[in-house]
Amino acid sequence: MQKFMRETMASDTKQPQNRTIIPNEIWIRSFSYLEENHLVHSVALVDRLFFYLSSDDSIWHDICMMRWIRKLNVGRFFVTSDSLEHSQRRVLKNACFAQDKGRERCNTDNCGNARRTAMTYCYELIQQFGSPEVLPPLNMGSLMHRPTSWKEAYWMAEMDSRRQIISREEIVYYRFRLEYMGQPSKMGLRQFSADGTYDSPYMGLCEWSLYRKHLLFASMFLMVRRDKENWGWIIGEGERTVYFSVEETSDIKN
Predict the structure, then answer these.
(1) 115 pLDDT above the threshold of 90
(2) pLDDT-based confidence at 10, cuts 50/70/90?
(3) How far apart are CA 186 and CA 152, in angstroms?
(4) Angle, nearest 10°, between helix axes 24-31 and 57-67?
(5) Per-residue pLDDT for 111 more than 50?
(6) Is residue 113 very low, low, confident or very high in pLDDT (cuts 50, 70, 90)?
(7) Which contiguous run of DSSP H or E holds residue 84?
(8) How far apart are CA 151 and CA 59, in angstroms?
(9) Chain centroid to CA 97
(10) d(CA 208, CA 224)
(11) DSSP per residue, 18-77
(12) pLDDT digits (tens, 9 = 90+) for 55-93
């Protein structure tokens, strides 16, 4: 399929009028078989029309759903119905405009600007904080900025997954599965309360606080690292007691 698409696009670049025969819906369906890297770094660079068609929400919704399987706390990136309707109208309008205007090859003055505009919010945050690794969590707390398309949602989630410092909001949001000496606890999921307290079944009520990549509570100073597999967090890896983040809606049985 990818070989066919490459040959077709190469042919159409030489004879762009051939593409007018194929409806946009067929192109969108064809693009849906490609991986996100091919869509962004190949298809979207052909011309304006292909950029807008390869940004269709039906394509990127499916990419997001496949990518986010077993990933934690990704609901904050879901596109609302109002944003989706607006995005679909925008893509259709831009695709029609591209057809009427003619097939101009993407460059810094057209499609490149469109890509930057969609991600301006994230780029500004990176410039502000210096690196995605130290960003606060996107779409949590004070950094609320709902994506207006599934393509934008995908890239915001990817950027957020590169963070290496957990936030207070996330500590409170998650529940934690405790393992002691490699054995899961039978006392249920643990919770760190928003008021800065942690109610331990063994130690009672104690205070907790964050210091960059460490969680302090009950006289313990535990490292917190990102779980690359599910985008969650692991507290105290390498210690006798380890905490693994889960969502409250998790099917995990205590």
Answers:
(1) no
(2) low
(3) 41
(4) 10
(5) no
(6) very low
(7) helix 81-101
(8) 8
(9) 29
(10) 13
(11) GGGGS-HHHHHHHHTTS-HHHHHHTGGGT-HHHHHHTT-HHHHHHHHHHHTTT-SS-GGG
(12) 999 999 999 999 999 999 999 999 977 655 554 555 555
68 token code pair:
């986010």
Distance, CA of 234 to chain centre? 19
CA–CA distance, 42 with 91 (Å, rounded to integer): 19
- Name the residue with tokens 């593409």: 19
- Lookup: tokens for 180: 């002691």
Query: How many C-beta atoms surround the C-beta of residue 193 within 10 A?
Result: 13
Confidence label for 107 from pLDDT (cuts 50, 70 and 90):
very low
Q: What backbone phi and psi angles, to 5 degrees, belong to 178?
A: -95, 135
Residue 82's φ and ψ, nearest 5 degrees, are: -65, -45
Tokens 């599965």 identify what position?
A: 177
- The per-residue pLDDT for range 191-237, each reduced to its tens digit, is 999 999 999 888 899 999 999 899 999 889 999 999 999 999 999 99
Q: Is 253 exposed, middle or buried (0-12, 13-18, 19+ CB in 10 A)?
A: exposed
Please check whether residue 162 is in contact with residue 132, taking contact to mean a CB–CB distance below 8 angstroms: yes
Structure tokens at 58: 């039906």
CA–CA separation, 111 and 113 (whole Å): 5
